Amino acid sequence: MASLTDLINLDLSDTTDKFIAEYIWIDAVGGLRSKARTLSGPVDDPTKLPKWNFDGSSTGQAPGDDSEVIIYPQAIFKDPFRRGNHILVMCDTYTPAGEPIPTNKRCNAAKIFSHPDVAAEVPWFGIEQEYTLLKKEVNWPIGWPTGGYPGPQGPYYCGIGADKAFGRDIVDAHYKACLYAGINISGINGEVMPGQWEFQVGPAVGISAGDELWVARYILERITEIAGVVVSLDPKPIPGDWNGAGAHTNYSTKSMRNEGGFEIIKKAIAKLETKHAQHIAAYGEGNERRLTGKHETASIHKFSWGVANRGASVRVGRDTEKEGKGYFEDRRPASNMDPYVVTSMIAETTIL
User: Where is the GS beta-grasp domain (predicted)?
Assistant: First the structure.
């Protein structure tokens, strides 16, 4: 008699050319939703996949009397859960008339990245996604005494050992699953606050940075669902003397990567300073609880930049300064930011 595990792991490739496509989209509050359909294949081009629809009145994206929202496939990834020929499909959301709905931030980002001036600069992004793992029943970080606190920060950043690193099995499962899916995940590490981790996606060019980070978040939520824990992207999950969670965004253009690029970087940073308030408003909910000027952050009210300064709004690395070219890191985005918004906004401000 086959077990549930046997059936979940059934290899369908010998019996049918059909495959399962899991369509993923972003809901009204920045959460992820998905549903699956059977298709014949294989298909490796999202434009060859059919559009689909969902009940927008159940996701806060449409009224009940006109509830249909259409999802357009935009990027395909291998499915690390079903494996085989099955795929994950990142989608964005439209009205039946073909207009992007208000929560569709990808559409505007794609327009910015397809602008000839932006495309010519081949913008690279590397996003450092911090997150906190919580016990499902009590909404408290894993590894912490229930209702209590661990020892102070210090030994946990990149720490090892049962008293310092909590949830590594989830982190490593996510790392490998992202690599399997085709996401350019470039590393992981334990963070300063116990129960908090980080993964990095990139370098990714233009709109693909947003696609890859959203699907990496999706895979992480699916893995924590299996593990019975909750992943939080709150920028300050625990008040007090504990680090918050950000999504530091590393950025370069072709001009910045070429000889003399450091001067281009300094001009780009000056442009970011002039639009500090607009960027902060778009860089994530609750960020004012994180950007206090403490715990490796700059004040939300004042723009600053510096070389190797993790207390600045924007940090330039020592290597970039030494070589006279490279990239910079915008440290302001919160962990719950929308990468479509942040990456396209940085490109628009610095190039257009």
Answer: 19-98
- Evaluate whether 315 touches 308 at the Cβ level (below 8 Å): yes
Output the CA torsion sign for 339, 226, 228, 190.
negative
How far the first Cα of the chain sits from its last, in Å, is 63
Cα 81 from chain centre: 19
Paired sense of beta strands 87-94 and 68-78, if any: antiparallel
Q: Do residues 77 and 215 lie in contact, with contact meaning Cβ atoms separated by under 8 Å?
A: yes
Structure tokens at 70: 């259409």
CA dist list (Å): 194 to 132, 142, 302, 312, 321: 9, 8, 29, 23, 33
How many of the other CB atoms lie within 10 Å of CB of 236?
22
Q: Which of 196, 272, 219 is nearest to 211 (CA)?
A: 219
Predicted local confidence at residue 42, as pLDDT: 86
Give the three-state DSSP class for 109.
Answer: helix
Q: What whole-number distance in Å separates Cα of residue 242 and Cα of residue 236?
A: 8
Half-sphere exposure of 175 (CA within 13 A, CB side): 15
Name which of 93, 50, 92 is nearest 68 in CA terms: 93
Whether residue 251 contacts residue 121, with contact meaning beta carbons closer than 8 Å, is answered with no
Go through the domains of the chain in sequence order and give each one's CATH number. Answer: 4-103 (3.10.20.70), 116-351 (3.30.590.10)
Spell out the SS3 assignment of 43-88: CCCHHHCCCEEEEHHHCCCCCHHHCEEEEEEEEEEECCCCCCCCEE
pLDDT of residue 247: 98
Cα–Cα distance for residue pair 339/337, rounded to 1 Å? 6
Q: How would you write 176-237 as a 3-class SS string?
A: HHHHHHCCCEEEEEECCCCCEEEEEEEEEECHHHHHHHHHHHHHHHHHHHHHCEEEECCCCC
Alpha-carbon distance 98 to 117, whole Å?
27
The radius of gyration of the chain from alpha carbons, rounded to an integer in Å, stands at 21
Q: Which residues of the chain have a pLDDT value below 50?
A: none
